[in-house]
Write a structure and sequence with these properties.
By secondary structure, the chain is an alpha/beta fold. It has helices spanning 24-35, 61-70, 85-99, 127-152, 178-198, 216-223, 246-258, 272-279, 291-297; strands at residues 15-19, 39-44, 74-79, 104-107, 159-163, 204-209, 269-271. Strands 3-2-1-4-5-6-7 form a seven-stranded parallel sheet, sandwiched between helices. The longest helix has 26 residues, at 127-152.
């Protein structure tokens, strides 16, 4: 190897599909898989020509693919509505034709926030909006796994990652409202079920959650800050101090995917903060926020926040 060459990444030669990679955790996970050397198919509904019902034109799947390639991998953008079985089947068929294998499947499809009526009781919540939340957060994952898993199980060592909001321990409490609670509980159970069904093929399924994610919308819409001055958001909610960048969960995923003993986690609920302790990575600022432990142990009604010992 001459001085201008770099060593191949730990995921060099691996083929990944990150379903729901337009922004937030999905985008960061795709980028970090690329940084580790993977070829990453990134999907979503917002492209440079079309904006999904989420309504954000600032992030596109082409933009994500460019970031993956810029990080050292190969990013391939494929516009996909994961509620359309024919589109998903065609997506997987393309991966099979072009690569002949699939090593990592990440089900990060969401986009339901715009339909959630956060302060409504179940019987008060608009039914069509509630069912749309479940379709976006549950049905999309099912459709994607239905078509992607036959390709993934061709080779032992495949990894399926269901992405949700909240660890299994935290989500034992009610994550109101009703439809949101169901949508975020389902991936935990999906991972448990797939773990049972994939074992005989030498493949692994887990559920992964970021902590309090400083997504694009969390920064510019909810807290009206930037990544550079995000701490100003603690003036609105002091507990925002435990938040983390999307890169943190991306690093968690990359560490999992590169772990030859990942099967020890089969069926488990995992978090970015917990895996940081396991693998030794940090967030971009060098800290290791453990948001779900914080949210379990600290009084969230308190007007002050102390993240000492939690990041």
């Amino acid at each position: 190897m001459n001085s201008t060459q770099t060593a191949p990444g730990p995921l060099s030669g691996k083929i990944a599909l990150v379903a729901g990679a337009t922004r937030g955790a999905g985008r960061a996970m795709a980028v970090e898989l690329g940084r580790a050397g993977a070829t990453v198919y990134v999907t979503g509904r917002t492209t440079r020509e079309h904006v999904s019902e989420v309504g954000r034109a600032s992030e596109t799947i082409e933009g994500t693919a460019d970031l993956v390639t810029g990080a050292g991998g190969t990013g391939i953008a494929v516009p996909t509505d994961h509620l359309d079985p024919a589109r998903v089947e065609a997506l997987v068929g393309r991966i099979d034709d072009e690569q002949g294998r699939l090593d990592i499947l990440v089900n990060d499809i969401w986009g339901g926030d715009t339909h959630v009526e956060w302060d409504k009781k179940m019987w008060e919540h608009d039914l069509d909006k509630g069912l749309r939340v479940l379709r976006l957060g549950v049905e999309t994952h099912i459709v994607t796994s239905r078509f992607a898993l036959p390709l993934l199980i061709r080779n032992p060592g495949g990894l399926v990652v269901e992405v949700t909001d909240g660890t299994e321990e935290y989500n034992r409490r009610y994550r109101k409202p009703y439809y949101y609670d169901l949508a975020k509980a389902a991936p935990l159970r999906m991972a448990r079920a797939l773990a049972e069904e994939l074992t005989e093929y030498g493949c692994t399924a887990v559920c992964l959650t970021p902590g309090w994610l400083r997504s694009e919308a969390m920064l510019d819409t909810y807290f009206k800050v930037t990544e550079e001055n995000w701490l100003d958001g603690t003036e609105q909610n002091p507990h925002f101090a435990i938040s983390e960048t999307p890169t943190y969960v991306g690093r968690a995923l990359a560490a999992l995917a590169a772990d030859p003993d990942v099967a020890r986690f089969n069926g488990q609920s995992l978090s970015s903060g917990g895996l940081a302790k396991e693998y030794g990575f940090t967030d971009v600022d060098g800290s290791r926020p453990d948001a779900w432990r914080y949210l379990m142990e600290v009084d969230q009604e308190s007007p002050t926040a102390d993240v000492t010992g939690y990041r």
